[in-house]
Design brief:
The protein has six helices and eleven strands. The protein has a three-stranded antiparallel β-sheet. A three-stranded antiparallel β-sheet has the order 4-7-11. A three-stranded antiparallel β-sheet has the order 6-9-8, with no helix packed on it. The protein has two domains: 73 residues, RNA 2'-phosphotransferase, Tpt1/KptA family, N-terminal domain (Arc Repressor Mutant, subunit A), CATH 1.10.10.970; 86 residues, Alpha-Beta Barrel (ADP-ribosylation fold). With 181 residues, it is of the alpha+beta class. The longest helix has 17 residues. A hairpin with a 5-residue loop joins strand 8 and strand 9.
Length: 181
């Protein structure tokens, strides 16, 4: 499978597993799982189990998981549909990072980071990952989040299966702009 096909399948899986399962007539269970066979049958792409497994394994962000029995698939985070990933709250590192575009910084510094149409705000444990995400949206601004203090003050953090830190909202008082490029 070439890179173009891999990317196309990954984007398709992100769409139907995170945002619009109804687009191809599938349903997600309460934890976000759906049948791989159902996706294959409902898709207008030339999909098979081998291609889906390859996309899951090759995805550098590890966006998807396949169930232990190999029959179901789900997105690890980033949902705008209501799912319970069954993540337990856990203590984050002292600092977490978020990359964003400069056009959003005034609003973020006033109201904080909001999940908007997604279930959680996504944070990274390292600057490099956060920067890569932020650059996709325009001129980069890096934010440092005082996660330990947030946690101490009762804000819940969750660690997704692929290492993305999740929370519902980051109030502006926990945000420090650390660099722009």
């Amino acid at each position: 499978m070439n890179e173009k096909e891999t990317k196309k399948i990954s984007k398709f899986l992100s769409l139907v597993l995170r945002h619009k399962p109804e687009k191809i007539g599938i349903t997600l269970d309460a934890q976000g799982w759906t049948s791989i066979e159902g996706i294959i049958e409902a898709s207008n792409l030339k999909l098979d189990l081998e291609k889906i497994v390859e996309v899951v394994k090759l995805n550098n962000k590890q966006r998807f998981s396949i169930s232990e029995d190999g029959e179901r698939i789900r997105a690890n985070q980033g949902h705008s549909v209501d799912v319970d990933l069954e993540l337990n709250a856990c203590a984050p590192p002292e600092k977490l990072f978020h990359g964003t575009a400069i056009r959003f910084i005034d609003s973020i510094l006033k109201t904080g980071l909001a999940s908007k149409n997604r279930n959680h705000v996504h944070l990274s444990a390292d600057v490099e990952t956060a920067a890569a995400v932020g650059r996709r949206h325009g001129k980069l601004v890096m934010l440092e989040i005082n996660a330990a203090l947030m946690n101490d003050e009762g804000h819940a953090f969750f660690l997704s299966e692929n290492g993305v830190w999740l929370c519902k909202h980051v109030p502006p008082s926990f945000i420090n702009q650390i660099e722009s490029s």
